[in-house]
Each structure stands twice: as structure tokens, then as C-alpha cells.
Design a protein that fits this description.
Ribosomal Protein L9, domain 2; alpha+beta; single chain; 5 helices; 181 residues; Ribosomal Protein L9, domain 1; 42% helix; 8 strands; three-stranded mixed sheet
């Protein structure tokens, strides 16, 4: 398989950072990297010109990695509760997607994107789940997700009504005793 060498002018997430000389397939270079100005042919002068920019990008990546490690540390003990509407058997009327989880984490103050949440399929039942959060290849953790009912079930309402009926005669008896005394 024929590969060509290119010098990256910008950081390409799955390929490398500014100043890396990478080997890619000709079609990827011709159709993606070169038209977008992300890469060029590697020459000693071009590599030398990008050295300062590469140092800046490496420093920025080091800073980002430290921030992400701190975020992983905070997330490791975090529990998230999402209220959802469900039937009496615990099946959700809608699902909980990775977008829902990422949005709830963002609202809780964590800088999490959808792609960091790895659940595979939508969650369809009330329960607790261990949700993997992957910020980078070596930066991963799990959070505890509780999917709970947002409204009481009909069984809960019936039980509450029964307990209220039982308490009413006792309350009336107490009122009568207070009035007689």
C-alpha cells in the first residue's frame, strides 16, 4: 500500500499535532488534508518554521491534559440523577441518550461533550447505571447514573390515598376530644 509523507500545519485529532511528519494514504491527503490547508510537503525549512508553533501547541496540550486529569478526578465520585417519565413497569417513555447525560453533566459544571459519554445504546429503563466517560485514550472514569421516575406511579397514588383515608378518622377523633376537654 502506497503511503505519502506530509507535514501537518494544524493539529488533526486522530493524526497528530502541528509539525508532525505523518504517513497517510494518497486519497486522504488529496481529498482532505491538502485542500483544507492542514498539511503540506515536508521540507527542512517548513519543519523549522513550524518549530515555535509546535512548542506552543505542545504546551497547550500539556495544560489541557492537566485540566482533563483534574476533571476526571472530580468525575470519579460523581453521581447524576435524571428524572424521567416511565410506565408502571419502569420502561421509559423516552430514552436517555449520551447527549442527555452530557448536557446534564455540563449543567452540573463539568466540561463534557457528547462524544466523551460512552453508553452505546439509549437507556430505556429506570435503574442505576455505570456510565463510562472517556476524555482521551488514557483518561477515563465512570460515573453513577440514576434514572428515576419523575412522577409517582398509580400504585404510589393509591397507597397514599389509602393511608390518607386511614388517618382521617383518627384526626377527627382527636378534634372531638380537644373540643370536649
Amino acid at each position: 500500500m502506497k503511503m505519502i509523507e506530509l507535514l501537518l500545519l494544524e493539529t488533526v485529532e486522530t493524526l497528530g499535532i502541528v509539525g508532525d511528519v505523518v504517513k497517510v494514504r494518497p486519497g486522504y491527503a488529496r481529498n482532505f488534508l491538502l485542500p483544507r490547508g492542514l498539511a503540506t510537503k515536508p521540507t527542512p525549512k517548513a519543519i523549522e518554521n513550524l518549530a515555535a508553533r509546535r512548542a506552543e501547541v505542545e504546551a497547550e496540550l500539556t495544560r489541557l491534559k492537566a485540566e482533563r486529569e483534574a476533571l476526571i478526578e472530580k468525575l470519579s465520585e460523581f453521581e447524576l440523577t435524571l428524572p424521567r417519565t416511565a410506565n408502571d413497569q419502569g420502561h421509559l417513555y423516552g430514552g436517555v441518550s449520551q447527549h442527555d447525560i452530557a448536557q446534564a453533566l455540563s449543567e452540573a459544571g463539568f466540561a463534557i461533550e457528547d462524544r466523551h459519554v460512552r453508553i452505546g445504546e439509549q437507556i430505556k429503563r429506570l435503574d442505576s447505571y455505570e456510565i463510562p466517560i472517556v476524555l482521551d485514550k488514557d483518561l477515563r472514569t465512570q460515573i453513577k447514573l440514576w434514572v428515576v421516575r419523575d412522577q409517582p406511579t398509580t400504585a404510589d397514588l393509591d397507597a397514599a390515598a389509602e393511608s390518607a383515608e386511614v388517618e382521617e378518622p383518627a384526626v377527627e377523633a382527636e378534634l372531638e376530644q380537644d373540643q370536649n376537654a
